[in-house]
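Hi Y.,

Following your request, here is the sequence exactly as I used it, all 276 residues.
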Amino acid sequence: MPVAAAVTVPLTSPTRRSLTSSLPNQSSPSPILKFTSLTKTVTSRLRLAASMTFGAAEKASPASFLDRKEAGILHFVKYHGLGNDFILVDNRDSSEPKVTPEQAVRLCDRNFGIGADGVIFALPGINGSDYTMRIFNSDGSEPEMCGNGVRCFARFITELENLHGNQRFTVHTGAGLIVPDIVDDEKVRVDMGEPILKASDVPTKLAPNTDHSVVKAGLDVDGVTWNVTCVSMGNPHCITFGTEGGQDLQVDELNLAEIGPKFEHHEVFPARTNTG
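Below is the corresponding structure, written out as tokens. Let me know if you'd prefer a different format.
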């Protein structure tokens, strides 16, 4: 269910130098949204249009909404994949993102911004690809790629390009070339490629214990030893089913907000890690 909206942010010219030099004061308030319309389409999917300006509500698809070019207005569409939610920005007219990582942090704030796990930019293709995808996480970092994110990206492209039926296109990412398939006019299928298990390529500093890979190895986190397997699908992942000698993992009993960052920033993961 895509949500189309607009927010006022101090947009900068598309160069890294000017993006950095013209950052707003970090103490300034985050962007504020004023919702101006809520319409239901003939396909019974809700689309939400929002902006900072006062005006009459109007009906618009995400594609036509994004066609507007008001100065200082960042148009976006919001999608989620399995609950992993993103702000999608049409950036096809520039090879540099329209907002900075610092601004992305503020936009992703769930109390004072739009709220999201990250901002995804649809940029022009490079090296022969149709499009380029870049992501700024909610903390301002930039991952190589995101599986749920690229599925949202693919649906976003079909809206922008008004594509119908089965489609396939190439997307350049930091993890290499991704080729999503649009099937049955709605679903997105993405071949993530062969998983990378070699410890040095994940990367992880944990000692390999199975054919150069880390499989069910012990990882100490705050005095508790977890059984973990390390794998990369373009970005590092640490997979665990529980602690050493413990019972099966009960996720609902964990304080994920506290323990998650301790895995992510653990010294054995030089490029940080996702944990599942």
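Confidence is low (pLDDT under 50) at residues 11-58.

Thanks again,
Q.
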